[in-house]
Design goal:
Layout (H helix, E strand, L loop, with lengths): L1 E6 L4 H7 L2 H8 L3 E6 L7 E2 L3 E2 L2 E2 L9 E2 L1 H12 L8 E12 L2 H9 L4 E5 L5 E2 L2 H6 L2 E4 L9 H12 L8 H8 L12 E4 L2 E4 L9 H16 L1
Bound molecules: adenine.
Length: 225
């Protein structure tokens, strides 16, 4: 079982996605487990009434930076009692980090990591000492800047979970590994739109498996260009 520990100020933003479809089934099958931790629950009460999780950056600049204390205490909770059986990986989401790819996802599964702690930043980022203290890896899901790390966390959980044996059905995983094109069709055979007719490629209706494989191979090569 792979456990994802997501450290986020907005854990509710994850729930609808992780409780649907493949990720939900994977949790039911006990192949993955998803836990969330809110740094706010680990913040100290300051000024008499508010639990503070962020502060102004030293040397000025816009925005707010997440305080190290609440994040580190949330991580400590996620780590729980030390166990030699567990193999942790700690990720901080950041647009400047290592690019997340399918190979990265496969690697996590191949290395038999049992627990991934995913720290989702917000605002201008997280106090840089968190990365140093935890020896965490910064990971980016693409060359653009998002509002926070929650979408990256969901994307990584989805892509990694698909690599775990048993998460996808037998047929789905075979299809994913075989020469399979993303150019797919369903009914109707002829679809009319704005008075124009769009047909399913003849070969897919032919029942000739060899020809269909060749067509899929060609269309996959075209996609990869
Ligand atoms: N946080 C903000 N933008 C991000 C990105 N592109 N990847 C990962 N984390 C981020």
């Amino acid at each position: 079982m792979l456990t994802y520990h997501v450290i986020s100020l907005f854990p509710e933003s994850l729930t609808s996605y992780i409780n649907e479809s493949i990720l939900s089934r994977a949790q039911e099958k006990k192949l993955i487990n998803i836990k969330t931790y809110n740094p706010r629950d680990f913040a100290e009460i300051t000024g008499g009434w508010r639990k503070k999780v962020d502060g102004k950056p030293y040397s000025g600049g816009p925005g707010m930076v997440l305080l190290p204390g609440p994040v580190l205490r949330a991580v400590a909770k996620a780590k729980g009692r030390a166990s030699t059986k567990k193999k942790f990986k700690i990720i901080i989401f950041s647009p400047g980090g290592t690019m997340f790819t399918n190979t990265y996802a496969k690697n996590i599964v191949d290395k038999k990591i049992t627990d991934i702690i995913m720290i989702c930043g917000r605002y201008e980022g997280i106090d840089a000492r968190v990365k140093k203290i935890l020896k965490a890896e910064e990971v980016s899901i693409g060359d653009y800047v998002l509002t926070g790390g929650e979408l990256p966390a969901m994307i990584c959980m989805d892509a990694i979970s698909r690599q775990i044996k048993g998460v996808l059905g037998k047929f789905e995983s075979l299809e994913e590994n075989r020469v399979s094109s993303h150019e797919v069709y369903t009914r109707p055979e002829i679809f009319e739109y704005n008075k124009k007719k769009y047909k399913v490629p003849e070969v897919l209706l032919s029942g000739d498996h060899k020809k269909i494989e060749e067509w899929k191979m060609k269309s996959k090569q075209a996609e990869n260009k």
